[in-house]
Amino acid sequence: MNEIRYETIIYWDSQDEIFVADIPELPGCKAHGRTKQEALKNIEEAASLWLETAQEDGIDIPAPKGRLLYA
Fold first, then answer.
1. Measured between alpha carbons, how far is 23 from 18 in angstroms, rounded to an integer?
2. How many helices (H) and strands (E) does the chain have?
């Protein structure tokens, strides 16, 4: 799996008691985990699948902004 170079936001969801990871540049690309590390691992997998599907479906893939955040 390639390293994902998109801005990634990780936050705590107190209702579900999980960490949520979101890549705003890839609409709908979110993942979660019990730890920040698990959420990050899962978002990298989700982003790879998002990019693969977009390429297969001929959807424009946005260029990364060049910032990588772990909040």
1. 17
2. 1, 3
